[in-house]
C-alpha cells in the first residue's frame, strides 16, 4: 500500500487559511469608509452607450431604407 499523504513535516494549507482568517477577524477596524465616487465616469459611460445606440440605429435605418 502506497503512502499518499506526502512527506512528513509539510504545512497544512487549511491551517494557514484558518490562521489568516483569525488574524483578519481580530484586526482593528480603523479604515475609513471609501469616499463616494464622482459621477464623472458614470456620465461618460451613459453618453457612450447612448452614442452607440444612435449609431446602431442609424446603420440599421440606412441598411433597411
TrEMBL record:
Residues 1-19 have a biased composition (Polar residues). Residues 1-40 are annotated as: Disordered. Keywords: Membrane, Transmembrane, Transmembrane helix. The chain crosses the membrane at residues 43-64. This is Uncharacterized protein. The lineage of its organism: Bacteria, Bacillati, Actinomycetota, Actinomycetes, Kitasatosporales.
